[in-house]
Amino acid sequence: MIAEVIVDIANAEVDRIFDYVARLDTKVGQRVKVPFGSRYIEGYVINLKDSSEVPAEKLKEVGQSVDDYPVLLPELLDLCKDMCKRNHLRNVDCMRLFVPSQLRSKSIKPLIINYLKVCEDYNPDKYLENIRANAKKQKDMLLYLEANLEYPQAELNKMFGAINVSKLINSNVLLPFTKQKIRSPFCEEKNDKQVKLSAKQKSVVQDILLQPEMTHLLFGVTGSGKTEVYMNVIDKVLQQGKNAILLVPEISLTPQVMGVFKARFGEEVALLHSGLSDGERFDEWQRIRLGDARIIIGARSAIFAPVSNLGAIIMDEEHDPSYKSESNPRFLTHDVAQFRAKYNHCPLILGSATPSLESYNLAKQGAYILHELPERANKKEMPVIQVIDMCNEVRNGNTGMFSGQLLEDLENCVKNNNQAMLFINRRGFSSYMICRECGYVAKCEDCDVSLVYHKEDNQLKCHYCNRRYKALDCCPKCHSQYIRMGAIGTQKVVEELQKLFPKVKILRLDFDTTKNKNSLTNILSEFGKTKPSILVGTQMIAKGHDFPDVTLVGVMNADMSLHFSDFRSVERTYQLVTQVAGRAGRADKTGKVILQTYTPKHYVYRFVANYNYPAFFEKEINLRQVSNFPPFAKIVRVLITGENDTLAHDMTGKIFDELKTVHKDYLKDFIYFSAMKSPITRIQNKHRYQILLRFTLEKEQEILDKIYQIVSNNTNPKLQIFVETNPANLS
């Protein structure tokens, strides 16, 4: 037999199939060692066949297997082919998505623990008589093991002394054996509230299960019980002997989701995301592979879990931009989920209170089945959203960050022993430091971005490369001591709140406070248990969290996402503000939302205040159609980055010149075509250039194929060149 192998080398020149003579034990999907040049390297067996076009004398034999089992399911091998074809990716880059890096590097192995148990013919009276009268700890240990049957040896050593343990082992009273310990992620289980589904929820569950070959868009307001729909669908799927994947957009959402699902489904739930320790991720992956876990919950990467026989795939908050990978390999999670759902003949459920315009448009056209949950599950009204004009606040003499109304509502919230959440989508203390004399702004030496001041460390930090600098005492350019802070961040908000409410617990949830393991879970747990309390956070607090005592939500500056030079900025503003507003009044208590803005007359806030997504959709989709933006056109960005500015610039010019022929051949289809420096011209000391193309959908695939071909013909080991379709971020 001949084994077709993809070698584990991230290089386009060797990204092809190599034939080797297979061993008797070689399996499809297995990792093997193969001779390659003068060395042995790892590779993936993607197929076995009877013959090869390569002459027999040139064929080398597959070496030993790296694992005694296939790491790639047949489904994942087919998915790899689809991703490579769809996104013009390298095979090995896709395959690395399917295998944990800890397994590839062999840095993590199963955790084996030494255990002890009493021997099978153990007779308490006989053995206790033979132990010296003063050997109290040995007697206590035997009595303890009678009750516990088996126990880790290290723990027994601590409890009763290593010498006593050794004596009983040597006398064959205790038998040593080993057992693998599963390193499970910490999860605080929630109370499993067996909720009785509403008639509408029951109808949605039934419709989804009756149409398993379709994609279902579940459009339900915040608090409408979408999670309960997911759980009921999964419960039915498990009863059929099938498995399920539930994706959430951010790691910050996993503790609450895991707590609810573990309470309902127990040890059949596994968690997969990059925030786990190496050991936890390795063990969870193995549990999934062996079939010990049947429900997989996680962020984007969990879509590649080695689970077969899927009965449902669910993407919660499907609108979130984090479902699009912005690093190599670039892919859209929706596409991967669609493939796996089709492969398994199971439903794909996209859930959101604020669906993406693309998804809602497909549902309106009939490509997806639309299900709506227009009311909260507890029948309570949605929280009232009050829009505050911050320009009026300034005119009335209030130059602070809190409007008079927000302060008044915060005081009432605290007085009534309730909780509040304040949202500001910027971490740190202030977004920049500027000299008022000469206008100097402190910038990162490796990135073309201003440095953010973090008061806790008294440092300036780059949020792109994480470099740190000493905070400015005086201007390095003109030596002036008149240094002004820029726009506020989460740290500044917390500092001001602590002055205003010194006796109230103020917590902060952002990237800086969640770097340590379990810090995210601890912050959310502490907030949930403390009343009154105020949680200040970035978009990490905006989605999914369910705290029954949150009666007030404050949006500190709703305009932050509105004025980006991105065609999605209005849509993202609607989504973000609506999502964070949905954290208020989720239980029996009435909720209220204070939305602070400097542009209160912008049409987006009218739709937000009325929770009128259908009307917002009609307005925005018409604008997109008139201006020829997605979903009515395709945007492609060719991004060129490298440490050598001249090299990156010249390569951009070369690719741009070659793309001119495509532009000329399809002139009627093109809406926009230009080359330029990226808005952020340098990140991590790499210069960045981009070519933007926008064209109609009529000949979309033809144009895309030509773009990919031109880019693949222009490679340089000193440059990184990527093609992105409808990029989530154009900066």
Tell me what you see in this structure.
This protein has 731 residues and is an alpha/beta fold. The chain has five domains: 2-105, GIY-YIG endonuclease (3-Layer(aba) Sandwich), CATH 3.40.1440.60; 111-181, Arc Repressor Mutant, subunit A; 199-373, Rossmann fold, CATH 3.40.50; 384-429 and 488-623, 3-Layer(aba) Sandwich (Rossmann fold); 633-725, Ribosomal protein S10 (Alpha-Beta Plaits, 2-Layer Sandwich). The chain contains 22 helices and 29 strands. A seven-stranded parallel sheet has the order 10-11-9-12-13-8-14, with helices on both faces. Strands 15-25-24-16-23-22 form a six-stranded parallel sheet, with helices on both faces. A four-stranded antiparallel sheet has the order 2-1-4-3. Helix 1 (74-87) crosses helix 12 (333-344) and helix 18 (569-581) runs parallel beside helix 19 (603-609).
How many beta-strand elements? Answer: 29
Shape: globular
CATH class of the largest domain: Alpha Beta
Low-pLDDT sequence parts: none
Helix percent band: 25-40%
Strand content: 15-25%
Largest β-sheet summary = 7 strands, parallel
Contiguous helical run count: 22
Based on secondary structure, the structural category is alpha/beta
What is the CATH homologous superfamily assignment of the largest domain?
P-loop containing nucleotide triphosphate hydrolases
Q: Quote the CATH topology of the largest domain.
A: Rossmann fold
Number of domains: 5
